[in-house]
Amino acid sequence: MTPHVVPDPQAAAAVKAADRAHVFHSWSAQGLIDPLAVAGAEGSYFWDYDGNRYLDFTSGLVYTNIGYQHPKVVAAIQEQAGKLATFAPAFAVDVRSEAARLIAERTPGDLDKIFFTNGGAEAVENAVRMARLHTGRHKVLSAFRSYHGATSTAINLTGDPRRWASDTGSAGVVRFWAPFLYRSPFYATTEAEECQRALAHLEDTIAFEGPQTIAAIILETIPGTAGIMTPPPGYLAGVREICDKYGIVFVLDEVMAGFGRTGKWFAAEHFDVVPDLMTFAKGVNSGYVPLGGVAISEKIAATFETRPYPGGLTYSGHPLACAAAVATIEVMEDEKVVQHAAHIGENVLGPGLRELAERHPSVGEVRGLGVFWALDLVKNKETREPLVPYNAAGEANAPMAAFGAAAKKHGLWPFVNMNRTHAVPACNVSEAEVREGLAALDTALTVADAHTV
Description:
- With 453 residues, this protein is an alpha/beta fold.
- It contains 13 helices and 16 strands.
- The protein has helices spanning 9-22, 59-62, 71-83, 94-106, 120-135, 152-157, 191-209, 235-246, 298-303, 319-334, 337-359, 398-409, 431-449; strands at 38-42, 45-48, 53-56, 113-117, 139-143, 173-176, 214-220, 249-253, 277-280, 292-296, 363-369, 372-380, 385-386, 412-413, 415-417, 420-423.
- Strands 4-10-9-8-7-5-6 form a 7-stranded mixed β-sheet, with helices on both faces.
- Helix 3 (71-83) packs antiparallel against helix 10.
- The radius of gyration is 22 Å and the shape is globular.
């Protein structure tokens, strides 16, 4: 239960003043932002110093998979801090070993070795390094509609506009079109056509780049920030076959889609596919302490059995982060959080979003699984023209900004990116909370509707 908050404007002013004076924010023009001062959070909600409470349909940055302040995870972090707050990564530490074991038990196939990082971008950096060293090749293929992180290699593998300003170190990165039937680059009209043509395009790209030069193909199992586009049946299995054919390492990025988000422990389970390397972060411990990693197959791990792996991190497998991961996984098992996420998606959130689409002319498509959904907002359902242009800013982005403001006014904190709003609440969100969020979305979408033709 969210505690009653007594408004404290002086505290809010002090927090914001310190923030403005000293904090440099991600992805922002520093003088043009006005961050909300957060006073607290619990479960699926957070609140400000004025007593305004928001239902978080963003899960932070799609990572608070078990909500804010879960008491069992908080207690585990406190207990670990009293026992062994930190220790260097070269040693065997009980909680580190246990976190690795619990993760390996849930990864598909033989992904049984775990290399810990501080987050998802570092996981991608190291997965690509492993693939290049394993194959002796340099090129890596990634999709245009993708996000893999903001470190050097990860940002250059990313397909969205956040890459552009830093696209100076991209030697060896080759991009291709992954399937997305609603806005098909292949002029497909069915999922089967989209799958077949996307695989043919990928294999053509490989042929023209030279298979012998390609170390890896990296894909988000279900792209997250780029639009939550669930791949058509057979696509990921087809990529797996192509990788096997040419000796290419198949890397799946599960940083956002993993740990219950799609109603499975990992999204790869929906498609019965096992990659050679799989990156994770975010939901592994609900973001309570920074943690990510790479799950490594037997054949990749064997490369470094007698050959040193040239990579490491000071805080790899940090005890506090690993304690949070152990507690989070145990909570997810005990409280059947993964099964709950599947139920919410199938019976509450998915149907509710589709019902909104039927009534709102601004909703072009609804897509997703579990608690991982997107509404593609359009000016016209027939033409599918996006509600705002690609990478819109300022006045061009006004319709989406108005939609977001309306959602917040009605107590919903939305995930807004380009012409989409994503519905990505905590995996243990209640049915009542989902319906509350749907009601707020219903009202906010009337604002978007005003911009349709």
